[in-house]
Amino acid sequence: MASIKQVIGTKAMDQAINYIEKDPMENLSKLLDWSEKFIARDNHKEILQKFREVVDDTNSNWYKLIERYFDELSPATRRNFLVNFMVNSGMLGIPLQYEIAEKYNCNVPWAILIDPTSGCNLKCTGCWASEYDKTDSLSYDLLNRVIEEGKELGIYMYLYSGGEPLVRKDDLVKLAEKHKDCFFLSFTNATLVDEKFAKKLGELGNFGLAISIEGFEEETDMRRGKGTYKKIIEAMDLLKKEGVAFGFSTCYHKYNTESIGSEEYIDFLIDKGCMFGWYFTYMPIGKDAVTDLLVTAEQREYMYHQIRELRTKKPIFILDFWNDGEYVDGCIAGGRRYLHINANGDVEPCAFIHYSNVNIKDTSLLEALQSPLFMEYKNHQPFNQNHLRPCPLLDNPEMLRGLVNSSKAYSTQPIDKEDVKDLTQKTEDVAKAWAITAEELWNKHLDEKEELIKP
Hints:
The protein is of the alpha/beta class. The protein has 18 helices and eleven strands. Helix 1 (4-20) packs antiparallel against helix 2 (24-35), helix 7 (169-178) runs parallel beside helix 8 and helix 8 crosses helix 10 (228-241).
């Protein structure tokens, strides 16, 4: 049940949205003035100040992104992004998460990533989800229970992965309708998006998509199968027409890095309607994983510089799951900012770390956050003082071995039960190579910060 504060906040936000949409860009600064009354945390005040700077600079790419927000998204999407994502998930949810984390001495995440099903209509090369049993799925009632428990902890952001989540799109729509105070995002190959589904998402407004694409047609079809790229482009056209919030999710590996990091690629996806982009680097999960796809240190550094450059001039919000560790003080997994529940119900610290001590089918969400592996994460984060080396698998493999062994966690992969020693051996060489490059980048980063704070 919504708190009085949330009800008041929602009603006030409704009034503010009605006001701002009369002349969005002109009235935006007034909305920021109003929002300041509801902000208590210092870091939120800093974010608000950055928004003010954006609104004042009409030539910036961020200002142009806000214009796209009002021009391209449906009214329901605009409203739900502001209320559910920024107010419920941010201003109201985060303080409660911190309060509960302190009370129970455990991490409480901002978002939950959950797999409704392990089934998929594609078989992509190097996909970590292929290591799960394809018959696993979580019932509607269990998915609903996780969301109900999550909201009690202040969590209003839910992401779906798989498998292909849209195999269960009827249930996912039903959950979005039931939990109108939450924001939902599904990672998807987009091949199951049709006109009816796109229209429904535009009407709901609290359910967006992160579409998996590996570059242009050749690179995408290489990993995802011939004809997949064309279906993705058709889906993007349908979603843009209905004003749905969607973006891209790209896995960069040795053979596509230069292509997916190019301005041409970003410009193309902006034109197709993507509001955000999420970059992941290839991880060699599973005994038969293709280690040749791992990026080199030079390619990872290229992405480090390229994404930061693109952020200064493109009207799209882009993230790099690993290289952005400096902005979030290292690894965000293990419930620190997010956790993963697979389609069998195993509660894992990360989508790429297939080990657990508990299953959500017979434990509560709070109990899962207090489980041995999650407490090992909490007690050892950050895993490296150089936040450009955040990951306990890709960057600090010896750390992951210790976490799994100390917690006596089990492998959640039913196909091969990969031992943590075997897994981490595959990343040791790339971790050592990246450590040298990351040290140079981190020292430069610290020098730049020191210059900024000099009187």
